[in-house]
Amino acid sequence: MHKVYYFLLIVMFGCISCEWQFMAEEDAKVVVDRYDRIQSLYLTTGDFSALQQMNTMYPMQTRTLIEDVLRIGKVDDQQINTKFLRFYQDSTLQLLITEAEQQYANMDDINSDLTIGFKYLKEKIPGIEIPEVYAQIGSLDQSVIVGNNSIGICLDKYLGTDYPLYQKPQYGYSKSQLESMNRRYIVPDCIGFYLLSMYPMPQDRALSQQERDTHIGKILWVVNQALDKQVFNTLYTRMVERYMKRNANLTLDQMLRNNNYSDFRKN
Q1: Sheet strand arrangement including 132-136
Q2: Each residue's pLDDT tens digit, 9-30
Q3: Cβ atoms of 119 and 27 closer than 8 Å
Q4: pTM reported for the whole predicted model
Q5: Contacts 24+ apart (CB under 8 A), 177-183
Q6: What is the separation, in whole angstroms, between the first and last Cα of the chain?
Q7: 71-108, pLDDT tens digit by residue?
Q8: Which of 70, 121, 178, 208 is the most exposed place for a label (fewest CB within 10 A)?
Q9: How far is 99 from 253, CA to CA, in rounded Å?
């Protein structure tokens, strides 16, 4: 009888352990919330129920889009829904909406890479919170919006380096900008901008361009580590690489907080 009892205890604790492990894995999983789909439905059809969902289910995302990304007014303005709808009636923006929804019908690869990246950061930087990530469609002015422990991905800025609209002279995108305006840079940008919000450049003094580049180099080097691939290969990421080899006992948090940039230039 005792053997049966002990066996049941082992099975019970084994199940609890599996359940806790499953819950931990689920907590670390990042899935992009498809706010863009409801946004697209409203902006292409004027569906009032979609507008209601935007305002009730996604109040923070809607406020951020209207006030911070588009900058067309305050979300509590009585005429804001009309302004919002009219703004996107522009033929170029309608094309962007259609293209974004086609290219990003499936984002499983992005969800997987975000999960890998933020799981790494969670392990290496104690206390870091995994943000909520959502997709939206802007107006070709911003790529990633970070705030309120959330990341908003503007899909209109990731339609491909060769996307015809990007080539038009009025947009003035440089070659280096165009190279990053494609799907494979979404996750690196999300992680990079989120880290930059946690470890911003010092505000207590004026920085030289070299110091600013070194600070960004620190961020991009960590992005490379989080994704286990060399997404960014610059003079400054290589400088950070050498610094970390010289200081193998440093944590990522300690390195990111070190704003004595001359340390990174030593051979």
Answers
A1: 132-136, 150-154, 144-147
A2: 454 555 555 454 444 455 568 9
A3: no
A4: 0.88
A5: 181/143, 181/157, 182/158, 183/103, 183/110, 183/158
A6: 70
A7: 999 999 999 999 999 999 999 999 999 999 999 999 99
A8: 208
A9: 39
